Amino acid sequence: GVGDEGQSADQQLQIGLQLIQQSYSRRVEELSREVEHWKRVAQHHKQTEGQTREELQKANNRTQEMQRQLNEKNQEVASLAEARNVALNQIATLKKHAAQLQSFKKNISNMLQADTGLEGLNTVNVQGMLDTLPTMDSTFSSTLTSPAIDAFGARGTGTGGGPTPYFNGSDPGFGGGGSGYAGGG
Fold first, then answer.
1. Which pLDDT value is given to residue 114?
2. At a CB cut-off of 8 Å and minimum separation 6, what does 140 contact?
3. Which of 58, 111, 126, 164 could connect to 158 by a Cys-Cys bridge, CB 3.0–4.6 Å?
4. What one-character DSSP code corresponds to residue 118?
């Protein structure tokens, strides 16, 4: 009796401890698997974060390169617009000079026709030379327009058909109309 009960109690205690030990071992395995799972999740997030940072850095580098290229193109456009304005101003000046020369040619031609004091010159030869000179319209027919450059705001152009070198459109040169030649026109 009593020995059986004592042995039985010890066996029951032993069985109980084994059950507790097995339950504890299962719980440790479950928690270990859960820890491993969260370690893999954390590792995946680290890799994703690293890839995202790398992609962000590449995008930032591309943005900086594109900004640099944009700045270069803007400088190029500004330079071309400035060169265009210089060329337009030179053309306007040349047209003005051509008009003055045309007026001078006309004055000489008129003087030859009137035969006023040009003794000793062969008026036919001089008149023939004058007639072979090109007219202003045929010499300066280019206008150098460029909508692409105009879009960036060409500076220094007047509201008319070309650049005006002075704010009021005045001509500080020969006074226009050939008045600076042969007695004022």
1. 80
2. 91, 94, 95, 98
3. 164
4. -
Confidence check: pLDDT of 39 > 80: yes
The type of residue at 52 is T
Q: How confident is the model at residue 129 (pLDDT cuts 50, 70, 90)?
A: low
Whole-prediction pTM: 0.41
Residue type, 13: L
Say how many C-beta atoms besides its own lie within 10 A of residue 163's C-beta. Answer: 20
Range 77-115 burial, b when 16+ CB lie within 10 A, else e: eeeebeebbeebbebbeeebebbbebbbbebbeebbeee
Output the pLDDT for position 60: 97
Q: Compute the C-alpha angle 148/152/153, nearest 5°.
A: 115
Give the orientation angle of helix 2-114 with respect to helix 123-132, to 10 degrees. 160
Q: In angstroms, rounded to a whole number, what is the distance separating the alpha carbons of residues 163 and 91?
A: 9
State CA 89 to chain mean position distance: 24
Contact 152, 146 (CB under 8 A): no
Joined together, the tokens standing for residue 65 give 């390169």
Q: Which residue bears the tokens 């850095």?
A: 57
Alpha carbons 79 and 86: distance in angstroms, whole number: 11
